[in-house]
Amino acid sequence: MGAIIWKEFVDRGASAKSADRPELQKMPEYIKENAGRTDYVIVHKVDRLTRNR
After folding, report:
1. 10 Å Cβ neighbour count for 31?
2. What is the CA radius of gyration of the chain?
3. What's the burial of 30, exposed, middle or buried (CB within 10 Å: 0-12/13-18/19+)?
4. CA–CA gap between residue 48 and residue 51 (Å, rounded)
5. Which residues contact residue 7 at a Cβ distance below 8 angstroms, ignoring those fewer than 6 apart?
6. 2 Cβ partners below 8 Å, 6+ apart?
7. Cα(first)–Cα(last) distance of the chain, in Å?
């Protein structure tokens, strides 16, 4: 892909059943602030992002 990882958002030990996780909440704001240089959001495991895929 040639992607460069600028930032990681990790909520260690947090359950994916709720979107009320600090790092998950920071991610969309970061994307908005860096819209010109954000082309991808890479999710290591989708079930870690949310339970309701």
Report:
1. 13
2. 12
3. middle
4. 7
5. 30
6. none
7. 24
Left if phi > 0, otherwise alpha if psi is -120 to 50, otherwise beta: which for 4?
Answer: beta
Distance CA 49, CA 17 (A): 9
Could you tell me the two tokens for 17?
Answer: 């059943």
Q: What is the pLDDT along the chain (53 residues), one digit of tens a residue?
A: 788 888 999 887 666 566 678 888 899 999 999 888 888 888 887 776 776 65
Q: Label residue 17 left, alpha or beta by phi (over 0 means left) and psi (-120 to 50 means alpha).
A: alpha
